[in-house]
Amino acid sequence: MKMTDIATPAYVVDETLIERNLRILKEVIDETGCHILLAQKAFSMYSLYPLIGEYLHGTTASGLYEAKLGYEEMGKENHIFSPAYKDSDFAEIVSICDHIVFNSFSQLARFGEQVVAAGKSIGLRINPEHSTQVGHEIYDPCAKGCRFGITAQHFDREALANVSGLHFHTLCEQDSDDLWTTILAVEERFGDVLYDMEWLNFGGGHHITKPGYNLALLKKCITYMKQKYNLRIYLEPGEAIAYEAGYLVTTVLDTTYNDGDIAILDTSASCHMPDVLEMPYRPPLQNSGEAGEKAHTYRLGGPTCLAGDVIGNYSFDAPLKPGDRLVFEDMAIYSMVKNNTFNGMALPDLVIQDRDGNCHLQKRFGYEDFKGRLS
């Protein structure tokens, strides 16, 4: 079927656009010798893991379930970082993960011997204390008081006997100029330690596949650290893999008026695109404009009872009416992994659009998915 034939709401992931992004990442791999991993926290549609695995070295996880998914469905390098691990999870984590990154020396002391006994690689997350975020402290791992990473003041150079690598993750949707200044901060605080390491992980948040991203500087960053300290370099982007490669297709259910035209959709900001409320974020919408740009402006909202379940104000060439379809873009990342069933909302269908433009239903969620969550 074609996109015009699918039931709504539905997330549609375009295989061609995923592969476009993967080719860009493969260019970085081939020219620098780095290892790039899929950060599953942003995109974990494992139907596409065989394709992603053709280009990337493996996956990275934030907990046991993501680690199991990467191990089962991609079966390549499998890395994990968590601010703190549970005793009940750790034996399984060690059995399926290659790199285990600790957030503190106390976690290293607690679990390190198990990792050594299993012959796996130990890493420590460092905090370079170099913020590059402006106005988004919720996404700033170097914000004052942040729980992520060990600062230079508390870094114990006498406790590194079994540590093979360091990990930092400081970026969020940023270009490589911010990576370069972060690297300089890492060198200033931890450069002496790097000479004794086998690898360094640059983390995620790299907007590598966004048009205009400075690929040349990224390659310079990788090559510089690789050659100076004789390190294997890892990157673990999530968004870059599925950037602008997916859609959320929705239908207008009704229109109303209150101090302006309102359209109620069969998709919800709160349930199906939570970053709209959390970040906040205004998703691009096909064939629309900013409020007032086109002849007819509407506030688009969802069908839940939350007054703030509002996607945003958009304008259109013609009035909206029940049955009209709207297609939100850049919906493959984070939306699918963060969605929820608040108010009994059904989760959108999962659809893959193949290279020929044909859509294939991967998963349909129903009442039992909602009912089974809480009892």
TrEMBL record:
InterPro entries: Ala_racemase/Decarboxylase_C, De-COase2_C, Nsp_de-COase, PLP-binding_barrel. Transmembrane segments: none annotated. Its cofactor is pyridoxal 5'-phosphate. Keywords: Decarboxylase, Lyase, Pyridoxal phosphate, Spermidine biosynthesis. Residues 30-331 form the Orn/DAP/Arg decarboxylase 2 C-terminal domain. GO terms for molecular function: lyase activity. This is Carboxynorspermidine decarboxylase. It comes from Kurthia populi.
